[in-house]
Amino acid sequence: MTDPLSDRPAYRQVADRLRQHIDSGEWAPKHKLPSESELMGQFGVSRVTVRLAVGALRSEGLIVTRQGRGSYVRDREPTRRVAAARYIQDAGFAAGRVSEPATVFVAGPGDEPSRYRLERSFHEERANDHVAGLLGMGVGDLVLERRFLFFVDERPERMSTSYLPLDLVKGSPVADPANEPWPGGTIAQLNSLGRPVSRVEESVLARMPTPEEGQTLRIAAGVPVLVITRRMFSGQERDQPVEAAADIVLPADRVILEYVIDIDDP
Fold it and tell me: Which domains, ranges and CATH numbers included, belong to the chain?
């Protein structure tokens, strides 16, 4: 039963109790929740209160509701690590110091390449304010826009849109989508153009997905995304942007971003 003297609304109390069953592991993934009538009797609340409680858990991404079949504990998504060190490995591969490039998802030992698939589309576009600012170029200047959708075991895991100055890549193998996926990724591509990457900047933002992102990446209700904006620089002064990703979008419940910061002893 709920506590009528509590400052917490009845539906929140019901949601708290149900969440405890999920967090403790008592209700495993795919476990079917009691029916609305059963929950009404268990907690002594109205149908409206039960629906609000279930809706709260659904908005948190803990359960899914199937029309006419009830609500179920959502599967725990496999989590993949995306480490900043992948750029160092790609740079080593581009320079011939490393025999194997990193993958987008930092695949573990023994991972089969057949598990991974990439969809891509390339278009020549004019830079808008945002892209022009990231690349340090004029608004309206021509860029190569590259859209990627990455799959693991046929599940969409990551989408990204990146830009390269068109005068840098036009007519080169980098501008041909048939050459994707490129071993060593963008860093190896830029190296092949004589523009070795000297610095990578990333900023990470958490937000709720757009309808298109939610549908494309099959994101459950209530689950946010991590959005990475990236710039790659070339040159000894490390001040010339040569690539910008705006943005890289990943479901937040499927990825761990890893950053290692070495601090010199003063």
Answer: 10-73 (1.10.10.10), 80-258 (3.40.1410.10)
